[in-house]
Structure to design on (403 residues):
């Protein structure tokens, strides 16, 4: 039996890229598969079945043995002390402030940029303040981190004094922690992951963005989270040479697939790192819920998982880079995050199959929407209807429902 990662069904692969960086023979690559997700490809001529890739792969490791339970942690509501940063970042600007602080204190930052040539997300390492604008904002598509992981390992081994702040999805950061342990790196690492919804298929994003390019021409900016109408009713915004496309997330077809959970990676449906465990020092996201329903510039939820994470949070607060509003038990925040198993796996498989055959997004969306339960269709309709109301009115409606 093979000892490489393909000994396990690829259906559970997260596409984190850890295996690529771990391979001493450079026998593993990461490509977009037919179903639109990043997946490993092994060169059998180079592979020697050493089993090293299995030792860092999430599918072969019990997360309970390498991570802590997030539900018994504390979560802080925090936001940048710079209102301009609050307004131009995804939530409250915590990740941006952390990265700025890191560069000023000699850290290299691992984060995600949008590759306009390939229309994909890519994880990179930066060390200059002028590159920070590339990292700003969430990218709600799967990021290829294999090159960045490989480069980080090479650099860290050569210079043990180099420090890193690494930001990624829970599966990416879990894998990176395994690489750090495997190579016994003594560099200082601050590991940061995100409250994750899951990653959608590139078979949704690629035809979507191709159509927008035909309408808008060459794209200058892709903003997955544009807060022009406030934090609570965020929008997608695409700026091209021929014009600008701006639409509420719940009315945009890409986001409809995303929020309806019908085109996510299979591994996302029951991911333990999304639901229960955290392998980072800090986990970041939006602090949804009633606590901050009147704030329109956004609030970051900062879950502190380790003592190192607490020290970093305190330093940012002491230097007045962030404002820490309140401290909450994790449940207050996690009840509004994607922390349960997703259903509709059968419908998801049908959607992915139709998309891989080249059916249009609108035709497939019409197909799957009619198969959703009535409650799900009603909720989708209400969310689209909500975009016609100001947030002040929605607050009153939510309070009335809760009462």
């Amino acid at each position: 039996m093979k000892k490489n990662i393909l000994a396990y069904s690829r259906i559970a692969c997260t596409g984190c890229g850890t295996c690529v960086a771990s391979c001493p023979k450079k026998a593993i690559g990461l490509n977009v598969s037919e179903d639109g997700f990043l997946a490993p490809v092994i060169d059998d001529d180079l592979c020697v079945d050493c089993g090293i890739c299995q030792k860092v792969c999430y599918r072969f490791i019990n997360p309970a043995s390498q991570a802590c339970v997030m539900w018994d942690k504390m979560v802080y509501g925090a936001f940048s002390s710079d209102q301009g940063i609050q307004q131009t970042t995804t939530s409250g600007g915590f990740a941006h402030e952390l990265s700025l602080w890191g560069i000023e204190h000699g850290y290299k930052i691992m984060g995600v940029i949008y590759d306009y040539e390939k229309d994909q997300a890519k994880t990179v390492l930066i060390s200059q303040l002028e590159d920070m604008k590339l990292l700003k904002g969430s990218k709600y598509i799967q990021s290829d981190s294999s090159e960045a992981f490989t480069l980080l390992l090479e650099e860290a081994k050569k210079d043990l004094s180099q420090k890193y702040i690494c930001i990624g999805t829970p599966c990416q950061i879990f894998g990176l922690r395994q690489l750090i342990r495997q190579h016994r790196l003594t560099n200082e690492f601050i590991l940061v992951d995100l409250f994750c919804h899951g990653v959608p298929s590139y078979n949704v994003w690629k035809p979507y963005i191709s159509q927008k390019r035909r309408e808008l021409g060459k794209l200058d900016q892709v903003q997955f989270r544009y807060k022009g109408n406030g934090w609570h009713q965020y929008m997608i915004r695409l700026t091209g040479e021929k014009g600008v496309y701006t639409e509420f997330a719940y009315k945009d077809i890409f986001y409809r697939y995303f929020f309806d959970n019908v085109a996510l990676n299979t591994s996302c449906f029951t991911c333990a790192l999304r639901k229960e465990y955290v392998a980072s020092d800090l986990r970041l996201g939006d602090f949804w819920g009633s606590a901050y329903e009147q704030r329109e510039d956004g609030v970051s939820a900062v879950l502190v998982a380790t003592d190192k994470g607490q020290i970093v949070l305190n330093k940012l607060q002491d230097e007045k880079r962030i404002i820490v509003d309140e401290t909450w038990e994790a449940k207050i925040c996690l009840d509004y995050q994607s922390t349960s198993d997703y259903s509709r796996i059968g419908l998801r498989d049908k959607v992915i199959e139709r998309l891989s055959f080249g059916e249009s997004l609108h035709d497939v969306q019409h197909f799957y929407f009619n198969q959703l339960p009535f409650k799900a269709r009603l909720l989708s309709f209400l969310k689209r209807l909500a975009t016609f109301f100001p947030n002040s009115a929605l607050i009153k409606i939510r309070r009335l429902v809760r009462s």
Observations:
- The chain has 16 helices and 16 strands.
- The chain has a mean pLDDT of 91.
